[in-house]
Specification:
single chain, 483 residues, Aldehyde Dehydrogenase, Chain A, domain 2, 2 domains, 6-stranded mixed beta sheet, NAD, oxidoreductase, Ald_DH_C, Aldehyde dehydrogenase family protein, Ald_DH_N
Length: 483
Protein backbone atom coordinates (compact mmCIF):
# COMPACT_ATOMS: atom_id res chain seq x y z
CA UNK A 1 0.00 0.00 0.00
CA UNK A 2 1.45 3.36 -1.08
CA UNK A 3 1.23 5.22 2.21
CA UNK A 4 4.30 7.50 2.56
CA UNK A 5 7.14 5.88 4.51
CA UNK A 6 9.40 8.92 4.88
CA UNK A 7 9.49 11.31 7.87
CA UNK A 8 6.12 12.99 8.19
CA UNK A 9 6.77 16.72 7.97
CA UNK A 10 7.60 18.50 4.71
CA UNK A 11 9.29 21.87 5.20
CA UNK A 12 11.27 23.90 2.66
CA UNK A 13 11.43 21.03 0.20
CA UNK A 14 12.78 18.46 2.68
CA UNK A 15 11.26 15.66 4.76
CA UNK A 16 12.01 15.68 8.47
CA UNK A 17 10.75 14.30 11.76
CA UNK A 18 8.38 16.49 13.73
CA UNK A 19 9.76 18.26 16.78
CA UNK A 20 6.81 17.53 19.08
CA UNK A 21 7.00 14.95 21.84
CA UNK A 22 3.53 13.77 20.76
CA UNK A 23 3.46 10.54 18.76
CA UNK A 24 0.50 10.44 16.37
CA UNK A 25 -1.10 7.39 14.79
CA UNK A 26 -3.24 6.91 11.71
CA UNK A 27 -5.51 3.83 11.55
CA UNK A 28 -7.57 2.14 8.83
CA UNK A 29 -11.26 2.66 9.74
CA UNK A 30 -12.35 -0.64 8.17
CA UNK A 31 -9.91 -3.08 9.79
CA UNK A 32 -8.18 -0.84 12.38
CA UNK A 33 -4.70 -1.60 10.99
CA UNK A 34 -1.99 0.91 11.83
CA UNK A 35 -1.13 2.99 8.77
CA UNK A 36 1.40 5.43 10.20
CA UNK A 37 3.06 6.38 13.44
CA UNK A 38 4.99 9.66 13.44
CA UNK A 39 6.20 12.58 15.53
CA UNK A 40 3.82 15.52 15.41
CA UNK A 41 4.83 18.99 14.31
CA UNK A 42 5.94 21.46 16.97
CA UNK A 43 5.60 25.23 17.21
CA UNK A 44 9.16 25.49 15.88
CA UNK A 45 8.24 23.34 12.88
CA UNK A 46 5.37 25.72 12.19
CA UNK A 47 7.64 28.74 12.39
CA UNK A 48 10.15 27.07 10.08
CA UNK A 49 7.44 26.22 7.58
CA UNK A 50 6.08 29.77 7.54
CA UNK A 51 9.58 31.24 7.22
CA UNK A 52 10.34 28.94 4.30
CA UNK A 53 7.05 29.85 2.64
CA UNK A 54 7.63 33.56 3.12
CA UNK A 55 11.08 33.39 1.53
CA UNK A 56 9.99 31.15 -1.33
CA UNK A 57 6.91 33.22 -2.12
CA UNK A 58 8.90 36.35 -2.91
CA UNK A 59 10.72 34.57 -5.72
CA UNK A 60 7.74 32.46 -6.81
CA UNK A 61 5.47 35.44 -7.44
CA UNK A 62 8.08 36.91 -9.81
CA UNK A 63 8.09 33.86 -12.08
CA UNK A 64 6.26 34.25 -15.37
CA UNK A 65 2.68 33.24 -15.98
CA UNK A 66 3.93 30.55 -18.33
CA UNK A 67 6.22 29.03 -15.72
CA UNK A 68 3.50 28.91 -13.09
CA UNK A 69 1.03 27.45 -15.57
CA UNK A 70 3.49 24.81 -16.80
CA UNK A 71 4.26 23.78 -13.23
CA UNK A 72 0.56 23.27 -12.54
CA UNK A 73 0.21 21.13 -15.65
CA UNK A 74 3.24 19.12 -14.57
CA UNK A 75 1.53 18.60 -11.21
CA UNK A 76 -1.56 17.27 -12.96
CA UNK A 77 0.58 14.85 -14.95
CA UNK A 78 2.30 13.57 -11.80
CA UNK A 79 -1.07 13.00 -10.14
CA UNK A 80 -2.33 11.09 -13.19
CA UNK A 81 0.67 8.77 -12.95
CA UNK A 82 0.02 8.16 -9.25
CA UNK A 83 -3.72 7.59 -9.36
CA UNK A 84 -3.44 4.09 -7.86
CA UNK A 85 -1.34 5.41 -4.98
CA UNK A 86 -3.97 8.02 -4.14
CA UNK A 87 -6.74 5.42 -4.20
CA UNK A 88 -4.73 3.22 -1.81
CA UNK A 89 -4.26 6.10 0.61
CA UNK A 90 -7.90 7.21 0.55
CA UNK A 91 -9.17 3.67 1.08
CA UNK A 92 -6.72 3.06 3.90
CA UNK A 93 -7.09 6.21 5.96
CA UNK A 94 -10.71 7.28 5.48
CA UNK A 95 -12.52 4.18 4.21
CA UNK A 96 -13.22 5.62 0.78
CA UNK A 97 -15.08 3.40 -1.67
CA UNK A 98 -14.08 3.42 -5.33
CA UNK A 99 -16.67 6.04 -6.27
CA UNK A 100 -15.40 8.45 -3.63
CA UNK A 101 -11.75 7.84 -4.54
CA UNK A 102 -12.65 8.73 -8.11
CA UNK A 103 -14.44 11.88 -7.01
CA UNK A 104 -11.33 13.08 -5.18
CA UNK A 105 -8.95 12.09 -7.97
CA UNK A 106 -10.87 13.49 -10.95
CA UNK A 107 -12.13 16.49 -9.00
CA UNK A 108 -8.60 17.42 -7.98
CA UNK A 109 -7.32 16.98 -11.53
CA UNK A 110 -9.97 19.46 -12.64
CA UNK A 111 -8.91 21.92 -9.95
CA UNK A 112 -5.25 21.68 -10.91
CA UNK A 113 -5.96 22.09 -14.61
CA UNK A 114 -8.25 25.02 -13.89
CA UNK A 115 -5.55 26.56 -11.70
CA UNK A 116 -3.12 26.37 -14.64
CA UNK A 117 -5.18 29.22 -16.17
CA UNK A 118 -5.12 31.36 -13.04
CA UNK A 119 -1.73 33.03 -13.67
CA UNK A 120 -3.33 34.57 -16.76
CA UNK A 121 -6.32 35.80 -14.74
CA UNK A 122 -4.23 38.14 -12.58
CA UNK A 123 -5.59 41.03 -14.57
CA UNK A 124 -5.91 44.67 -13.54
CA UNK A 125 -7.50 47.94 -14.59
CA UNK A 126 -6.55 51.45 -15.58
CA UNK A 127 -8.95 54.08 -14.27
CA UNK A 128 -8.62 57.74 -15.19
CA UNK A 129 -8.70 60.12 -12.24
CA UNK A 130 -11.40 62.79 -11.84
CA UNK A 131 -8.76 65.31 -10.81
CA UNK A 132 -8.24 68.25 -13.14
CA UNK A 133 -4.55 67.47 -13.48
CA UNK A 134 -3.74 64.34 -15.46
CA UNK A 135 -3.49 61.13 -13.43
CA UNK A 136 -4.01 57.48 -14.23
CA UNK A 137 -4.76 54.89 -11.57
CA UNK A 138 -3.39 51.41 -12.19
CA UNK A 139 -5.18 48.67 -10.24
CA UNK A 140 -2.96 45.60 -10.10
CA UNK A 141 -3.72 42.14 -8.72
CA UNK A 142 -1.04 40.66 -6.47
CA UNK A 143 -0.67 37.45 -4.43
CA UNK A 144 -1.66 37.62 -0.76
CA UNK A 145 1.67 36.14 0.35
CA UNK A 146 1.60 33.06 2.56
CA UNK A 147 -1.70 31.21 2.84
CA UNK A 148 -2.48 28.79 5.64
CA UNK A 149 -4.70 25.90 4.53
CA UNK A 150 -6.46 23.76 7.14
CA UNK A 151 -8.01 20.65 5.57
CA UNK A 152 -10.76 18.33 6.87
CA UNK A 153 -10.80 14.55 7.29
CA UNK A 154 -13.79 13.63 5.13
CA UNK A 155 -12.40 14.62 1.69
CA UNK A 156 -8.80 15.18 2.79
CA UNK A 157 -7.17 15.31 -0.65
CA UNK A 158 -9.71 17.20 -2.76
CA UNK A 159 -10.64 19.77 -0.13
CA UNK A 160 -6.99 20.50 0.59
CA UNK A 161 -6.04 20.82 -3.07
CA UNK A 162 -9.08 22.98 -3.78
CA UNK A 163 -7.24 25.67 -1.81
CA UNK A 164 -3.59 24.70 -2.31
CA UNK A 165 -3.65 24.59 -6.13
CA UNK A 166 -5.22 28.04 -6.72
CA UNK A 167 -3.16 29.58 -3.94
CA UNK A 168 0.08 28.45 -5.56
CA UNK A 169 -1.10 29.23 -9.09
CA UNK A 170 -1.81 32.84 -8.13
CA UNK A 171 1.71 33.32 -6.78
CA UNK A 172 1.26 32.52 -3.11
CA UNK A 173 3.12 30.01 -0.96
CA UNK A 174 1.28 27.58 1.31
CA UNK A 175 1.51 25.97 4.71
CA UNK A 176 -0.93 23.05 4.74
CA UNK A 177 -2.13 21.50 7.97
CA UNK A 178 -4.29 18.36 7.56
CA UNK A 179 -6.56 16.72 10.08
CA UNK A 180 -4.55 14.31 12.23
CA UNK A 181 -7.23 11.74 11.38
CA UNK A 182 -6.20 11.70 7.70
CA UNK A 183 -2.65 13.08 7.35
CA UNK A 184 -1.38 10.68 4.67
CA UNK A 185 -3.37 12.49 1.98
CA UNK A 186 -1.58 15.74 2.79
CA UNK A 187 1.84 14.12 2.85
CA UNK A 188 0.97 12.72 -0.57
CA UNK A 189 0.25 16.27 -1.73
CA UNK A 190 3.77 17.24 -0.66
CA UNK A 191 5.16 14.31 -2.66
CA UNK A 192 3.28 15.47 -5.76
CA UNK A 193 4.54 19.05 -5.59
CA UNK A 194 8.06 17.80 -4.93
CA UNK A 195 7.95 15.40 -7.89
CA UNK A 196 6.51 18.12 -10.15
CA UNK A 197 9.56 20.29 -9.44
CA UNK A 198 8.08 23.20 -7.51
CA UNK A 199 10.68 25.35 -5.73
CA UNK A 200 11.38 24.42 -2.08
CA UNK A 201 9.17 26.28 0.36
CA UNK A 202 6.31 27.01 -2.03
CA UNK A 203 4.31 24.19 -0.43
CA UNK A 204 4.93 23.02 3.13
CA UNK A 205 2.95 20.31 4.97
CA UNK A 206 2.92 19.91 8.73
CA UNK A 207 0.71 17.67 10.87
CA UNK A 208 0.42 18.07 14.60
CA UNK A 209 -1.84 18.54 17.58
CA UNK A 210 -4.19 21.52 17.65
CA UNK A 211 -2.87 22.43 21.07
CA UNK A 212 0.62 22.89 19.61
CA UNK A 213 0.10 24.32 16.11
CA UNK A 214 -3.63 25.01 15.71
CA UNK A 215 -4.18 28.57 16.89
CA UNK A 216 -0.51 29.36 16.27
CA UNK A 217 -1.00 28.74 12.54
CA UNK A 218 -4.10 30.93 12.41
CA UNK A 219 -2.54 33.84 14.31
CA UNK A 220 0.95 33.69 12.80
CA UNK A 221 1.82 37.25 11.71
CA UNK A 222 3.40 36.13 8.43
CA UNK A 223 0.31 34.27 7.21
CA UNK A 224 -1.95 36.59 5.21
CA UNK A 225 -5.05 34.39 4.81
CA UNK A 226 -6.47 31.26 6.39
CA UNK A 227 -8.48 28.89 4.20
CA UNK A 228 -10.36 26.50 6.47
CA UNK A 229 -12.75 23.68 5.62
CA UNK A 230 -14.43 21.96 8.55
CA UNK A 231 -17.05 22.29 11.24
CA UNK A 232 -18.95 25.48 11.96
CA UNK A 233 -17.85 25.36 15.60
CA UNK A 234 -14.15 25.36 14.74
CA UNK A 235 -14.70 27.76 11.85
CA UNK A 236 -16.33 30.28 14.15
CA UNK A 237 -13.29 30.10 16.45
CA UNK A 238 -10.92 30.59 13.52
CA UNK A 239 -13.01 33.49 12.25
CA UNK A 240 -12.83 35.15 15.67
CA UNK A 241 -9.05 34.79 15.76
CA UNK A 242 -8.69 36.15 12.23
CA UNK A 243 -10.95 39.08 13.07
CA UNK A 244 -8.91 39.89 16.16
CA UNK A 245 -5.70 39.86 14.13
CA UNK A 246 -7.25 41.60 11.08
CA UNK A 247 -6.42 38.59 8.91
CA UNK A 248 -8.35 37.56 5.81
CA UNK A 249 -10.21 34.27 6.02
CA UNK A 250 -12.13 31.83 3.83
CA UNK A 251 -14.44 29.47 5.72
CA UNK A 252 -16.26 26.50 4.16
CA UNK A 253 -18.21 25.07 7.07
CA UNK A 254 -21.03 22.71 7.92
CA UNK A 255 -24.32 22.08 6.20
CA UNK A 256 -27.81 20.72 6.69
CA UNK A 257 -28.94 20.16 3.14
CA UNK A 258 -32.59 19.63 2.30
CA UNK A 259 -33.95 17.78 -0.70
CA UNK A 260 -37.51 18.91 -1.40
CA UNK A 261 -39.83 16.64 -3.36
CA UNK A 262 -42.72 18.52 -4.95
CA UNK A 263 -45.93 16.58 -5.70
CA UNK A 264 -45.26 16.52 -9.46
CA UNK A 265 -41.76 15.06 -9.11
CA UNK A 266 -40.52 11.79 -10.61
CA UNK A 267 -40.67 9.93 -7.30
CA UNK A 268 -38.45 7.00 -8.28
CA UNK A 269 -35.70 9.31 -9.45
CA UNK A 270 -36.09 11.56 -6.41
CA UNK A 271 -35.90 8.58 -4.05
CA UNK A 272 -32.71 7.30 -5.67
CA UNK A 273 -31.20 10.78 -5.46
CA UNK A 274 -32.19 11.10 -1.80
CA UNK A 275 -30.58 7.77 -0.90
CA UNK A 276 -27.44 8.48 -2.93
CA UNK A 277 -27.12 11.95 -1.39
CA UNK A 278 -27.74 10.63 2.12
CA UNK A 279 -25.30 7.69 1.99
CA UNK A 280 -22.47 8.91 -0.25
CA UNK A 281 -19.24 8.47 1.75
CA UNK A 282 -21.46 7.20 4.58
CA UNK A 283 -23.11 10.62 4.75
CA UNK A 284 -19.83 12.25 5.83
CA UNK A 285 -20.06 15.20 3.46
CA UNK A 286 -20.99 18.79 4.27
CA UNK A 287 -23.34 18.83 1.25
CA UNK A 288 -24.97 15.45 2.05
CA UNK A 289 -28.75 15.24 2.00
CA UNK A 290 -29.64 15.63 5.66
CA UNK A 291 -33.42 16.20 5.34
CA UNK A 292 -35.78 14.93 2.64
CA UNK A 293 -38.88 17.14 2.73
CA UNK A 294 -41.78 15.55 0.85
CA UNK A 295 -45.23 16.88 0.01
CA UNK A 296 -47.90 14.93 1.90
CA UNK A 297 -49.73 13.97 -1.31
CA UNK A 298 -46.85 11.68 -2.33
CA UNK A 299 -45.29 11.05 1.07
CA UNK A 300 -46.24 7.41 1.67
CA UNK A 301 -45.24 6.34 -1.82
CA UNK A 302 -41.94 8.17 -1.54
CA UNK A 303 -41.03 6.51 1.78
CA UNK A 304 -41.61 3.08 0.23
CA UNK A 305 -39.44 3.95 -2.77
CA UNK A 306 -36.68 5.30 -0.52
CA UNK A 307 -36.62 2.08 1.50
CA UNK A 308 -36.39 0.04 -1.71
CA UNK A 309 -33.48 2.17 -2.91
CA UNK A 310 -31.72 1.88 0.46
CA UNK A 311 -32.03 -1.90 0.45
CA UNK A 312 -30.17 -2.01 -2.87
CA UNK A 313 -27.10 -0.26 -1.40
CA UNK A 314 -24.10 -2.57 -0.95
CA UNK A 315 -22.23 -2.14 2.34
CA UNK A 316 -18.77 -3.46 3.16
CA UNK A 317 -15.05 -3.35 2.45
CA UNK A 318 -14.12 -0.20 0.49
CA UNK A 319 -11.61 -2.27 -1.48
CA UNK A 320 -14.60 -4.00 -3.13
CA UNK A 321 -15.47 -1.87 -6.16
CA UNK A 322 -19.13 -2.83 -5.91
CA UNK A 323 -19.44 -1.35 -2.41
CA UNK A 324 -21.15 2.04 -2.17
CA UNK A 325 -21.33 2.40 1.63
CA UNK A 326 -18.04 1.91 3.45
CA UNK A 327 -17.05 2.55 7.07
CA UNK A 328 -17.35 5.77 8.98
CA UNK A 329 -13.93 7.31 9.41
CA UNK A 330 -13.78 7.30 13.21
CA UNK A 331 -15.31 5.26 16.03
CA UNK A 332 -16.32 8.51 17.69
CA UNK A 333 -18.40 9.40 14.65
CA UNK A 334 -20.17 6.02 14.80
CA UNK A 335 -21.10 6.60 18.45
CA UNK A 336 -22.35 10.11 17.70
CA UNK A 337 -24.55 8.96 14.80
CA UNK A 338 -26.00 6.09 16.84
CA UNK A 339 -26.84 8.48 19.68
CA UNK A 340 -28.53 10.88 17.25
CA UNK A 341 -30.63 8.07 15.75
CA UNK A 342 -31.72 6.88 19.20
CA UNK A 343 -32.68 10.37 20.31
CA UNK A 344 -34.63 11.01 17.09
CA UNK A 345 -36.58 7.76 17.45
CA UNK A 346 -37.33 8.58 21.08
CA UNK A 347 -38.72 11.95 19.91
CA UNK A 348 -41.31 10.18 17.71
CA UNK A 349 -39.66 9.28 14.39
CA UNK A 350 -40.68 6.02 12.74
CA UNK A 351 -38.05 3.47 11.71
CA UNK A 352 -38.86 2.72 8.07
CA UNK A 353 -35.60 0.80 7.65
CA UNK A 354 -33.44 -0.27 10.58
CA UNK A 355 -29.70 -0.35 10.09
CA UNK A 356 -27.06 -2.12 12.12
CA UNK A 357 -23.46 -1.48 13.11
CA UNK A 358 -20.47 -3.75 12.56
CA UNK A 359 -17.30 -2.12 13.82
CA UNK A 360 -17.25 1.20 11.98
CA UNK A 361 -19.61 -0.02 9.26
CA UNK A 362 -23.11 1.38 9.62
CA UNK A 363 -25.86 -0.10 7.45
CA UNK A 364 -28.51 2.20 5.93
CA UNK A 365 -31.17 3.77 8.11
CA UNK A 366 -34.39 5.36 6.84
CA UNK A 367 -36.42 7.39 9.34
CA UNK A 368 -39.89 8.68 8.47
CA UNK A 369 -42.28 11.02 10.31
CA UNK A 370 -39.29 13.20 11.19
CA UNK A 371 -39.82 16.86 12.08
CA UNK A 372 -37.42 19.79 11.94
CA UNK A 373 -37.11 19.92 15.73
CA UNK A 374 -35.78 16.34 15.97
CA UNK A 375 -32.03 15.98 16.39
CA UNK A 376 -31.37 14.12 13.12
CA UNK A 377 -32.96 17.02 11.22
CA UNK A 378 -31.38 19.80 13.28
CA UNK A 379 -27.74 18.71 13.26
CA UNK A 380 -25.21 17.97 10.55
CA UNK A 381 -25.53 14.22 10.99
CA UNK A 382 -22.53 12.86 9.03
CA UNK A 383 -23.88 9.30 8.93
CA UNK A 384 -25.85 6.95 6.62
CA UNK A 385 -29.31 8.08 7.70
CA UNK A 386 -32.09 9.22 5.38
CA UNK A 387 -34.54 11.36 7.37
CA UNK A 388 -37.86 12.00 5.60
CA UNK A 389 -40.08 14.88 6.71
CA UNK A 390 -43.74 15.38 5.62
CA UNK A 391 -45.07 18.81 4.61
CA UNK A 392 -48.61 19.92 3.86
CA UNK A 393 -47.85 22.51 1.16
CA UNK A 394 -45.07 23.89 -1.00
CA UNK A 395 -44.85 26.97 1.21
CA UNK A 396 -44.41 24.77 4.27
CA UNK A 397 -41.73 22.81 2.43
CA UNK A 398 -39.87 26.02 1.69
CA UNK A 399 -40.24 27.26 5.27
CA UNK A 400 -38.93 23.93 6.57
CA UNK A 401 -35.98 23.96 4.17
CA UNK A 402 -34.99 27.44 5.39
CA UNK A 403 -35.54 26.68 9.09
CA UNK A 404 -31.87 25.94 9.76
CA UNK A 405 -28.80 27.94 10.69
CA UNK A 406 -26.94 26.39 7.77
CA UNK A 407 -27.07 27.38 4.11
CA UNK A 408 -24.56 25.45 2.03
CA UNK A 409 -26.41 23.30 -0.52
CA UNK A 410 -29.94 22.10 -1.21
CA UNK A 411 -31.99 20.35 -3.89
CA UNK A 412 -35.52 20.25 -5.25
CA UNK A 413 -37.32 17.74 -7.49
CA UNK A 414 -40.18 18.81 -9.73
CA UNK A 415 -41.72 17.60 -12.96
CA UNK A 416 -41.66 21.22 -14.14
CA UNK A 417 -38.13 22.60 -14.36
CA UNK A 418 -39.30 26.22 -14.25
CA UNK A 419 -41.36 25.47 -11.13
CA UNK A 420 -38.30 23.84 -9.61
CA UNK A 421 -36.14 26.88 -10.42
CA UNK A 422 -38.69 29.24 -8.88
CA UNK A 423 -38.72 27.13 -5.73
CA UNK A 424 -34.90 26.96 -5.70
CA UNK A 425 -34.49 30.74 -5.81
CA UNK A 426 -36.28 31.03 -2.47
CA UNK A 427 -34.05 28.54 -0.63
CA UNK A 428 -31.49 30.34 1.52
CA UNK A 429 -28.37 28.48 0.43
CA UNK A 430 -25.29 29.23 -1.63
CA UNK A 431 -26.11 26.36 -4.02
CA UNK A 432 -29.35 24.64 -5.09
CA UNK A 433 -29.75 21.79 -7.58
CA UNK A 434 -32.95 21.09 -9.49
CA UNK A 435 -33.76 17.42 -10.15
CA UNK A 436 -30.51 16.24 -8.60
CA UNK A 437 -29.19 15.61 -5.11
CA UNK A 438 -27.21 18.25 -3.18
CA UNK A 439 -23.63 16.95 -3.53
CA UNK A 440 -22.15 18.70 -6.55
CA UNK A 441 -18.84 20.51 -7.04
CA UNK A 442 -17.06 21.61 -10.22
CA UNK A 443 -13.73 23.42 -10.44
CA UNK A 444 -14.98 26.19 -12.71
CA UNK A 445 -18.26 26.99 -10.93
CA UNK A 446 -18.75 29.02 -7.77
CA UNK A 447 -18.86 27.06 -4.51
CA UNK A 448 -19.80 28.36 -1.08
CA UNK A 449 -22.54 28.84 1.45
CA UNK A 450 -24.64 31.31 3.40
CA UNK A 451 -25.39 31.75 7.10
CA UNK A 452 -23.42 29.37 9.36
CA UNK A 453 -22.08 27.47 6.36
CA UNK A 454 -19.24 29.86 5.78
CA UNK A 455 -17.68 32.99 4.35
CA UNK A 456 -16.14 33.34 0.89
CA UNK A 457 -16.32 31.47 -2.38
CA UNK A 458 -14.15 28.85 -4.06
CA UNK A 459 -13.43 27.93 -7.68
CA UNK A 460 -12.87 29.83 -10.92
CA UNK A 461 -12.39 33.58 -10.87
CA UNK A 462 -13.96 33.71 -7.42
CA UNK A 463 -11.02 31.92 -5.79
CA UNK A 464 -8.54 33.98 -7.80
CA UNK A 465 -10.09 37.11 -6.32
CA UNK A 466 -10.06 35.62 -2.81
CA UNK A 467 -6.41 34.55 -2.85
CA UNK A 468 -5.15 37.84 -4.27
CA UNK A 469 -5.20 41.48 -3.24
CA UNK A 470 -5.59 44.60 -5.35
CA UNK A 471 -3.29 47.58 -5.14
CA UNK A 472 -3.87 51.07 -6.52
CA UNK A 473 -0.93 52.88 -8.06
CA UNK A 474 -1.73 56.46 -8.98
CA UNK A 475 0.60 57.97 -11.57
CA UNK A 476 0.72 61.77 -11.87
CA UNK A 477 1.40 62.53 -15.53
CA UNK A 478 1.69 66.31 -15.16
CA UNK A 479 3.14 68.41 -12.35
CA UNK A 480 0.50 68.95 -9.71
CA UNK A 481 -0.09 72.42 -8.32
CA UNK A 482 0.06 72.12 -4.53
CA UNK A 483 0.04 75.80 -3.54
Amino acid sequence: MAVPNHPQQYINGAWREGGSSAVLENHNPFNQELIQRYQGASAQDLNDAVAAAKTAQKAWQRTTQREKSQKMLALAQVLEHRQADLYDILRAECGSVDLKCGAEFYGTLDHIRMAAHFPYQMDGKIIRSEMAQARNNYIIKKPKGVIGVIAPWNFPFLLAMRSVAPAVATGNAVVLRPSTTTPASAFFIAELFDEAGFPPGVVNVISGLSTEIGDALVTHPDIALISFTGSTEVGRHIGELCGKHLKDVSLELGGNSSLCVLPDADLKQAAKAAIWGSYCHAGQICMAVNRVIVHQDVYAEFVDLAVQAALAVKVGDPADKAVFLGPLTTAQQVQQVEATIAQTIAAGATVALEGKTEGQLMYPWVLSDVSNDMLAAKCELFGPVCSILPASSEQEMLDMANATDYGLSSAVFSGDIYRGMQFAQNIETGMVFVNDQSINEEAHIIFGGEKDSGIGRFNGQWVVDKFTTEQRIGVQEEDRVYF
